[in-house]
Amino acid sequence: MRLTRILLMVGLLWSGASFADPPRGYPFLGYDAGLKAARESGKPIFLYFGRYGCAWCDHTNKKTFSDAALKKLYMQNYVLVYVDAESGKRLTLPSGERITEAELGVRLQAFATPLFVYLTPAGDKIVQIPGFKTVQDFRDYDRYVRGGHYKDQTLMEFLGAKS
Question: For the domain with range 31-148, which CATH number is right: 3.40.50.300, 3.40.30.10, 3.40.50.720, 3.40.630.30?
Answer without folding.
Answer: 3.40.30.10
